[in-house]
Amino acid sequence: MAELNSKIPEGPLTEKWANYKEHAKLVNPANKRKLEVIVVGTGLAGASAAATLAELGYKVKAFCFQDSPRRAHSIAAQGGINAAKNYKNDGDSVFRLFYDTIKGGDFRSREGNVYRLADVSRNIIDQCVAQGVPFAREYGGLLDNRSFGGAQVSRTFYARGQTGQQLLLGAYQALERQVGLGNVTMYSRHEMLDVVTIDGKARGIIARNLITGELEKYFGHAVLLCTGGYGNVFYLSTNAMGSNVTAAWKAYKKGAYFANPCYTQIHPTCIPVTGDYQSKLTLMSESLRNDGRVWVPKSAEDSKAIREGRKKAEDIKDEDRDYYLERKYPSFGNLCPRDIASRAAKEVCDEGRGIVPSGFGVFLDFADAIKRLGIDTVKARYGELFPMYQNITNEDPLKTPMKIYPAVHYTMGGVWVDYELMTTVPGLYCLGEANFSDHGANRLGASALMQGLADGYFVIPYTIGNYLSPEIFTKPIPLDHPAFVEAENTVRERSERLMNIKGKRTVDDFHKHLGKIMWEYCGMARSAEGLTKAKKLIQDLRKEFWADVKIPGSLKEFNPEFDKAARVADFIELGELMVTDALNRNESCGGHFRVEYQDQGEAKRDDANYAYAAAWEFKGVDTEPVLHKEELKFENVELQVRSYK
Amino acid sequence: MKFNLKVWRQKSANVPGKLVDYPIGNITADMSFLEMVDVLNDDLIRKGEDPIAFDHDCREGICGMCSMYIDGRAHGPHHAATTCQLYMRTFKDGQTIYVEPFRAKAFPVIKDLAVDRSAFDRIISAGGFISVNTGQAQDANNLPVEKANAEKAMDAAACIGCGACVAACPNSAAMLFVSAKISQLALLPQGEPERKLRALRMVDQMDEEGFGNCTNIGACEAECPKEIKLTNIARMNREYLSASIVDE
Q1: What angle, rounded to 10 degrees, do the helices at A111-131 and A94-104 form?
Q2: Among residues A611, B22, B165, B221, which is most buried (max CB within 10 A)?
Q3: What top-level class would CATH report for the domain A266-409?
Q4: For the segment A49-96, what is each residue's pLDDT rounded down to a tens digit?
Q5: Domain count, chain B
Q6: Catalytic: which of A338, A381, A567, A642?
């Protein structure tokens, strides 16, 4: 059984990473050419890792399920990327970014990792600018910054409302450069369906060619999973339609522990749900809370009148409006962290003060900002966000307030990794949103881009050498090795089993059903009673899925419905683990809010009993997983009640 | 709302395709075009028929994966929007709507409405980058960029690589796509050292992929969901020409 050793280097916090780098083993350039690395996923983490490892001389094979690596969902991130540059001279520092991130994560992340993240954040901006990422600039030609939630400094770099796109294209171009140089082989429209392990080490993957349906085997001396988050377990989320947990889940089933699955981020500013046909929810960047004021009417009568179309936002006088975030959290106001803003929205809607027909929506109002700054400045600041909102809702946010509601956005939980980003399976790494490491129980805005690129550009290139150094003696393992053949057969049998069910309910039917269970019982507010009920419901759903799902077509063709079905099968199993984890964690922290544990509506942590990362070990689909605890040691920050008041 | 859809069905690249009629009802104005296709596919699956294959992913207009040619227009009739951001309120109740794949020699059909746009990746791979290895960068603010140029670079960088420009162009030219990247990097001081080589290599690769040439029609600009400007093509031509002359 694997031990949970986080491998945090010795020494003072500020020197751990430097110490590590100075003592990590190296691989000489001639030997790097003999070492093959598989990178699954080409978002910020995957593309930056694949490009950088290829630059170093490793032979890289990169995989993505989209038709091009440029389309990975990092592309949709709007608002920005944090970095402790202190260009604004407003008192920022590496320690402050570290502290804000630890506090923002509700003291459930590792000090060592988070400090490293804050430290390398500065290099990321340098690297991206050198690649030609067109960040916003001031008239003097220097870089501009804005503020994001959970911080009192301006440290967020941005490229209009398309920061994720521009950062990803930078990494994608670096990746394509290496493809052109012959150092990376790119496999688009390929989905990883299993990890191959030999003598306990990750040695390759089985991938489905999504165009032909063929299963293909690939060898690597190491395998990197950079496969993003699992928010689509809720069916409706801000994630792309294809975002899935499958690669991470296969790793879990092959022995990689899965940590803190219950930590999910519900983003406060998304366009509310309108109908059953809806396929996804659209995020409106958190940056809008820089200038937008969140409110609902003070009285439930006014709200009802708005819901029924008898009144409009403009009809409610200022004194009859409840700017509830400014009222409850005066020092952070509209820029309080996401989990807090989301719960506050739920609370006012539960009181009957929601302002959309379903009852689940609040206003985000730019009228004051327009008065203060002028319409042109506001328009320039938020680029294409306003037209995007208008296109979807048919309402102009420059004339009438936006309507928003929280939606599932990001998952802090993920595959457990140590300081080197290695999972509990030697040679198997996990980077970016897919791992659990840096955001604790809640992620701050503009930190996901930071973490993805930190992992790929600046962490893995150092840590992987430490593992690969002795691997120079391992010759590429032939693909007819029994472990490859067995893994391929397992994947084929499971695929055939799915196809042969020939039931009555569609894949989407099951996915929506799962989503409803998750949102109801494992969403913004959770209780032991609800979670216990959900566990049974999910188990029943899983049995029904495997008895009654209907998948058209065959395995030997381009078959998106099969791809979806294989992903939903994994989501259902994941849902059960999330509920198990949420039940185990008898406290409220960050994105995990248990109604039993609160103090006047605020989350109540239990540091004495739960200051640990919960890493789950797979024991079989019908068997309870085993919990391993990684105690979180706080030597540089004091555990406090997280207050933004 | 009700519609009569005429959808291109094609089993694979090597077999001929045809338009097939699909009457559809129970559509609401707030549905996106792709959600309408979801509803149709759900119905087809329940009836035991083959659902319509189409590419899509983010469904918020930024990944560039969706790619339908609707009523003779790339991404349909709504200006400056991808197919996923096209809403049914744009259409008249009862209307007939033609749905086809993005057509171009360099974009072979995979199945139905899904096409292979990997030619775009190969063009980027040929030179659409700045050669800077990780770790080599100087401090970001050591390299000021004139705000106006930074804005123009960002305008060009907004390209999502969807291929609408190619589909809209009677010549199947990819010049708007290629010029957007050449412009972005030519406008920034970071891009200066490789400026000439980049223009030459990207244009050569573009030709090799079988895309046509620009004859100043402007359909690409008109149909681009991100409103990439034709002036980029002018800039690309300048870049290519000056690079060719100096390059001997």
Answers
A1: 120
A2: B165
A3: alpha beta
A4: 999 999 999 999 999 999 999 999 999 998 899 999 999 999 999 999
A5: 2
A6: A338
The residue among B62, B112, B146, B198 with the most chain A CBs within 10 A of its CB, best to mutate, is B62
Q: How many CB pairs under 8 A join A and B?
A: 217
Q: Would you list the DSSP string of A525-572?
A: SB-HHHHHHHHHHHHHHHHHHHHHEE--S-SSS--HHHHHHHHHHHHH
Look-up of token digits 């995007």: A388
Question: What is the value of ipTM here, to two decimals?
Answer: 0.98
User: Which residues in chain B are closer than 8 Å to A561, comparing Cβ atoms?
Assistant: 45, 51
CATH number for the domain spanning B77: value is 3.10.20.30
**Host H or E run for residue A20:** helix A16-23
Cβ count within 10 A of residue B151: 16
Q: Are residues B93 and B136 in the same domain?
A: no
Question: Does B189 lie in the same domain as B100?
Answer: no
How close B138 comes to chain A (CA, Å)? Answer: 6
For A358-411, the pLDDT digits (tens) are 999 999 999 999 999 999 999 888 777 898 899 899 999 999 999 999 999 999
A252 or A642, higher pLDDT: A252
The CATH number of residue B186's host domain is 1.10.1060.10
A400, A356 Cβ separation under 8 angstroms: no
Is B177 found in the same domain as B106? no
Nearest to A325 by CA among A365, A367, A372, A293: A293
Collapsing DSSP to helix, strand or coil, A335 comes out as helix
Judge: B145–A141 Cβ closer than 8 Å, yes or no.
Answer: yes
Boundary of a domain, candidates B111, B127, B156: B111
R_g of chain B computed on alpha carbons: 20
Q: Are residues B151 and B241 in the same domain?
A: yes
pLDDT, tens digit, 9 for 90 and up, residues A210-255: 999 999 999 999 999 999 999 999 999 999 999 999 999 999 999 9
Give the residue-averaged pLDDT of A25-41. 97
Same-domain status, B72 and B187: no
Task: Give per-residue pLDDT as tens, A299-317.
Answer: 999 999 999 999 999 999 9
Structural domain harbouring B182: 118-246
Whether B179 and B153 map to the same domain: the answer is yes
Q: Is residue B176 domain-shared with residue B238, that is, in the same domain?
A: yes
From chain A residues 533-592, the ones with a CB under 8 A of any chain B CB are 550, 552-553, 557-558, 560-561
Question: Chain A residue with minimal CA distance to B161?
Answer: A70
Q: Which residue of B has its CA nearest to A49?
A: B134
pTM: predicted TM-score of the whole model, two decimal places:
0.97
Closest partner CB to B111 (pick from A67, A137, A558): A558
CB of A415 closer than 8 Å to CB of A374: no
Residues B13, B69 within the same domain: yes
Gap from B104 CA to chain A (nearest CA, Å): 17
Of B38, B51, B134, the CB nearest to A277: B38
| Residue A497 a catalytic site member | no
